Amino acid sequence: MPEPVPFPETLTTPRLTLRVPTAADGPEMAEIINANLEYLGRWLPWAQTPRTSERQSESMAQAHDRFLRTEDLMYLIVQGGRIIGSTGIHRIDWDVPVGDIGYWVAKAETGHGYVTEAAQAQTELALRPVSAGGLGFERIEIRCDPHNARSAAVPTRLGYTLEARLKRNARAADDASQLRDTLVFARWPSGAGKAEAERRGKTLKDVWEHWP
Q1: Cβ count near 142 (within 10 Å)
Q2: Residue 212: its pLDDT value, please?
Q3: What is the 3-state secondary structure (H, E, C) of the chain?
Q4: CA 117, 119, 125: angle at the middle one, nearest 5?
Q5: Which of 98, 32, 35 is nearest to 59 (CA)?
Q6: What is the largest CA-CA distance in the chain?
Q7: Distance between alpha carbon 166 and the CA centroid of its chain, in Å?
Q8: Model pTM above 0.85
């Protein structure tokens, strides 16, 4: 079984710094979330009610603790010294290992490619071998609501494969009385997908050749 790998506290891209949050980031994060509540609330279940600085500081401290325990990776997206959103690798299963990337930025920061840049950095980190400073994941996913075109465009740009559309598998973020679908995009280490496809092809060939 693969051992959990410590997360890097920062990732640097050409335009961004991704860094682990601390309790001190609570007030600034609360301000950003509250200013974008209507925009974020359509897609994110946690963005339905305003945040206080105290509540957000506690949330950031908890995220920092989960980061240190390698249970969940959360980064703040920092551009030009300003926090503009958040991203991370969530629902991590170190037995595989696998996880899925989530992201959001303030409405005013959309359309500049920041989310794609942040997701690319985390995709590379996840799929890079441990010996080369990565997390050694065997699979990384991005999941989103089919109606969220901006979110779905990110994995498409980064070469992810659309594996499935899960029908009616989750409640709508802004209306719990409604069910929604989920798109599942995935990538694997270079060459892994091809090798697996060839293995499956051989397995199916054996089944048919030896069918009674």
Answers
A1: 24
A2: 46
A3: CCCCCCCCCEEECCCCEEECCCHHHHHHHHHHHHHCHHHHHCCCCCCCCCCCHHHHHHHHHHHHHHHHCCCCEEEEEEECCEEEEEEEEEEEECCCCEEEEEEEECHHHCCCCHHHHHHHHHHHHHHCCHHHCCCCCCEEEEEECCCCHHHHHHHHHCCCEEEEEEEEEEEECCEEEEEEEEEEEEECCCCHHHHHHHHHHHHHHHHHHCCC
A4: 105
A5: 32
A6: 68
A7: 18
A8: yes
Average confidence score pLDDT of the chain: 93
pLDDT in tens, 25-65: 999 999 999 999 999 999 999 999 999 999 999 999 999 99
- What pLDDT was estimated at residue 191? 76
* Length of the chain (residues): 212
CB 12, CB 65: distance < 8 Å: no
Q: How far apart are alpha carbons 63 and 207 in whole angstroms?
A: 47
State the pLDDT at residue 207.
Answer: 44
Strands 175-187 and 139-144: antiparallel
Q: 15 φ, ψ to 5°?
A: -120, -10
2 has pLDDT over 50: yes
CA distance 212 to 208: 9
